[in-house]
Amino acid sequence: MFSSIPELLDELLIGGNVGRRARIASRIPASVVPAIRRDKFRRLLRYVNEKSPFYRRRFKEAGIDVRRVRTPEDLGGFFTTAQDLRENPVEDFLCARPELGFETTGTTSTTSKRVYFSRHEAADMGRDGALGLYNLGLRPDDRVVDAFDYSFWNAPFTLRASLDRLGCFHVTAAKIPPAEFYDRVKHYAFNVMFVEPSWLVVLTEIARVRGTWPVKFFYVGGENMSEDTRHYIESAWNTKVYIGYGQTESFGQVGTECPAQRGYHIDDFNLYCEIVDKGEDGYGELVYTTLSRVVMPLIRYRSTDITAFLNEPCTCTLKAARRIAKIRGRSDEMVICAL
Question: The pTM is what?
Answer without folding.
Answer: 0.89
